[in-house]
Specification:
With 473 residues, the protein is mainly α. The protein folds into three domains: 3-79, no CATH class; 81-173; 203-441, no CATH class. The chain is built from 17 helices and four strands. It has helices at residues 3-24, 27-48, 57-64, 81-104, 109-117, 120-135, 154-158, 166-185, 187-196, 203-206, 218-229, 263-284, 300-305, 333-337, 351-370, 388-403, 410-472; strands at residues 288-291, 312-315, 320-328, 374-381. Strands 1-2-3-4 form a four-stranded mixed sheet. Strand 2 (312-315) and strand 3 form a beta hairpin. Helix 4 (81-104) runs antiparallel to helix 6, helix 4 packs antiparallel against helix 8 (166-185) and helix 11 packs across helix 17. The chain is globular, with a radius of gyration of 28 Å. The termini are far apart. Residues 241, 243, 245, 255, 259, 261 line the site of zinc ion.
Length: 473
């Protein structure tokens, strides 16, 4: 089964079934079974992603985090089993009270509360409450009672009204705490999470699989998920690149994206794929377009001699726009050295993309003015994040489609826009994979060539030494 289908099935079918059990079965009974289930889910994901066993703890963590937190959404049921049970118990409180009242009449609410709190069911709630404070950081969550008993306790908080989305709020609070702790320790991870959680970045992971052009091939999907969870993109690269980088170091596992020796054609391939998809979407919206592809080359001279031309000219009813596409990696060593990273845990800015937008705008604005046109950069990164101007462009294209009579109502407009996001998100991941595969092949080829030359030199040296020895005799 393709990886993207397996991921969807795990996330949307298998795991939600266990969710129901974790809500209705006390954690003391369910915990071992839920842990075993979680291990099997992770093992399935590991085998689908062709990763070696045992799975690295940081990769497991990212697989289990929700998509909205930058993970893959293979939720650990054991991790939030107590939240599920506690929330279900809270939701059932008004019904429990109504059931107990006829048996206890004419007793007051206080007596019913005391009898409820002496029961076995309350022991289980008590245990879940303690676990949530110790492990899920729930004590600082909104709508979590500050104490278990008393007027502000569980009975007082939940016996009259059902709290809407209690489990959702507590779970979200738990994951926010988890991701904040992880990001406080690792700025590169935070930059990745900021990218993965930005608008439209995860569409490739959640989009409808039936639609044409909206899902990745198996190999590309494996690479996209590996990249998202921080796993190495390839297992078979040489230990050292021809540029001298040690590819065994964790900070070089995305080296294929920034290697100075091989990146030039790979980056162009990546760029062209995104530009082609953007152009075809613009055509679907009824725009007149002209695209100019850059040919992949290692030659800096040829690159310098390129005329100053943005990638796409889009002519619509309301405006003429020059569009230039740029794809970057937000945590390349050069950006890390310059400190282009999130400043603190509240910083959700796409720093690398914003800089790229500024550079492109400075480069092309005058040209666009000469042609009586606007300039809109389409800057994105390898994790799927798109810059503020890219969102402006997508909105304009959607409005043009609407003005051209291609969309009948607002629902149609929203559908067109979300399809556009999905297609672009898939295209960015596919383009990133295409570029990475090309760069990896060149790294392997050059390592093989170096090894052949080294063997040749060694053989020649040995022959010379043997000849010298023979002559000396
Ligand atoms: Zn290299």
């Amino acid at each position: 089964m393709p990886v993207i289908h397996a991921t969807h099935m795990l996330r949307s079918s298998a795991i939600p079934t266990m969710h129901y059990l974790s809500r209705v079965v006390p954690s003391s009974t369910a915990q071992n079974g839920l842990s075993t289930f979680d291990k099997r889910v992770l093992d399935t994901a590991r085998r689908k992603l062709n990763l070696p066993a045992p799975l690295d703890a940081s990769h497991s963590r990212m697989l289990q985090l929700p998509v909205r937190s930058g993970g893959v959404g293979l939720t650990s049921r054991a991790e939030i089993g107590n939240i599920a049970f506690y929330s279900c118990a809270a939701a059932s409180m008004p019904f429990i009270k109504r059931t107990l009242q006829p048996f206890e009449a004419p007793d007051t609410d206080d007596v019913i509360q005391q009898r409820f709190e002496h029961g076995q069911h309350f022991r289980e709630i008590e245990s879940a409450h303690k676990h949530m404070i110790d492990n899920n950081n729930s004590s600082s969550a909104v709508s979590f009672p500050p104490s278990l008993r008393g007027i502000a306790g569980f009975w007082g908080a939940f016996n009259t009204n059902t709290k809407e989305k209690l489990q959702h709020g507590l779970t979200q609070h738990h994951y926010s705490s988890v991701i904040r702790t992880l990001c406080d320790r690792d700025k590169l991870l935070q930059a990745r999470v900021v990218s993965c959680t930005s608008r439209g970045a995860s569409s490739w992971l959640t989009t409808n699989l039936n639609k044409c052009g909206q899902h990745l091939s198996n190999d590309h999907c494996i690479m996209a998920i590996r990249q998202r969870i921080g796993a190495p993109l390839f297992q078979d690269l040489p230990h050292t690149c021809s540029c001298g980088a040690n590819l065994d170091q964790p900070n070089q596992q995305d080296h294929v994206h920034w290697c100075p020796k091989v990146k030039a054609p790979a980056v162009t391939l990546r760029h062209n794929h995104v530009a082609a998809t953007l152009n075809s979407i613009a055509k679907l919206a009824g725009l007149t377009t002209r695209i100019e592809f850059t040919q992949p080359t290692f030659s800096a001279v040829l690159n310098r001699m390129r005329k100053l031309r943005p990638d796409i000219l889009m002519i619509g009813g309301s405006a003429t726009n020059f569009v230039d596409v740029a794809v970057c990696h937000p945590t390349t060593p050069s950006r890390v050295r310059l400190g282009i990273l999130p400043r603190d845990h509240n910083d959700k800015t796409l720093h690398a993309i914003n800089r790229l937008e500024q550079l492109k705008t400075t480069k092309y604005s005058t040209l666009a003015t000469q042609y009586n046109a606007n300039f809109i950069p389409f800057a994105c990164d390898v994790f799927g994040a798109m810059g503020p101007q890219a969102h402006v462009l997508i909105q304009w294209i959607s409005k043009e489609a609407s003005s051209a009579g291609l969309l009948s109502d607002s629902a149609d407009f929203r559908r067109f826009r979300s399809t556009t996001y999905a297609r672009l998100s898939v295209a960015i991941q596919r383009a990133t994979a295409i570029g990475a595969v090309d760069a990896a092949r060149r790294i392997r080829d050059s390592a093989t060539a170096v090894s052949i030359i080294r063997d040749g030199i060694a053989a020649a040296a040995a022959a010379t030494a043997a000849a010298a020895t023979a002559a000396a005799r």
